[in-house]
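Researcher: I'm preparing a figure for a lab meeting and need a structural model of a single chain. I don't have an experimental structure, so a prediction will have to do for now. The sequence is pasted below. Please return the structure as C-alpha cells so I can convert it later.
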Amino acid sequence: MSRDIRMCFIGDSFVQGIGDPEYRGWVGRVLAATRDDITAFNLGIRRNTSEDVMRRCWQEVLPRTLPDADNRLVISFGSNDAVEEGGRVRVAPDRCLDNLASILDECWRRAIAALVVGPPPVIGAGAEHLRRTSKLAGEMAALCRSRDVPFIGTTQDLAVDSVWIREAMADDGAHPGSGGYERLADLIRVDQWHEWISDPRP
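Model: Understood. Here is the structure written out cell by cell.
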C-alpha cells in the first residue's frame, strides 16, 4: 500500500514559480520526478518574506494535513528578506532565522516532517544582495543541521549558472524561465530530496 503523503510548499515567488511559461516552476518539476504518490499544495506568494510566511503558515498548512497521513512541509524563503528598501533590508537576518526556527519547532511538535530549500539569488539585485543572501543561506543551513532538518542550498550554484542568469535578466532580474527552474529543480533532485522522501525523520 502506498503512503498517503500530503506535502505543502510554502514561501515566496520562487516557490510559486513566477516567470515560468510552463507554470510548473521548481515545485512542479521536482514533484514530476518523484515516484511516490504525493498530494501537493503550492503555497508560494510573490514578495513574501519570512515574516509573511510565518504569519500565514499554520492557518494554511494545517487544513491541508490529515491525522493519519505522512504530512510534510517544504519551506523556502530569504531572498525577499535580503532585499534593501529605504536603506535597510526588509527583514533582519536574525529575525529571519528566528522565523525559520519557530516554523521548524512547530513542525517537530506537530510531527510534520520539514525540509528547507535555501534562497535563490536575485541576479538583478547586485553583488551586495548576493552577499547577504549567501550569508543568510549559510546560517539557515547551520540552523537546520542543529535540528536534524535537511537543507538544500541553491544560492551559490545559481549565482553562477548561465541559464539562471540569462533568463532572470531577460525578465525582471529575479525570476527565470523554464530553463532556470529546471536548473533549480536539478539542485533539489540531486541533493537530499529522495532520501527525505524515503526517510523524513520528523
